[in-house]
Specification:
By secondary structure, this protein is mostly helical. It is 51% helix and 5% strand. Strand 1, helix 3 and strand 2 form a beta-alpha-beta unit. It is flat and about 55 Å long. The mean pLDDT is 84.
Length: 86
Amino acid sequence: MEVIDPVQDYLAVLKGVFDFPAIKALLQRSDFSMVFDAMHAVTGAYAGPIFVGELGASPDSVKQASPGLLRGIEEQLILLLLRGFV
């Protein structure tokens, strides 16, 4: 079994597409600020390592980076749909 780090693979692709030194320089400017809202979705796992770790953004610029739990109707619907597959 091989364990891979999808963040590192994705980061390698992004570095081939975007000018990371220019983005990092922008994030370091005192007259620029940004907030990334991952909306408790899968992007949260990538946001911290990329924006904070790689690009040097402030840790408080990444919001709602933990995947949320499904609640209410969405959870019930998924359970009903899965019942036919289990």
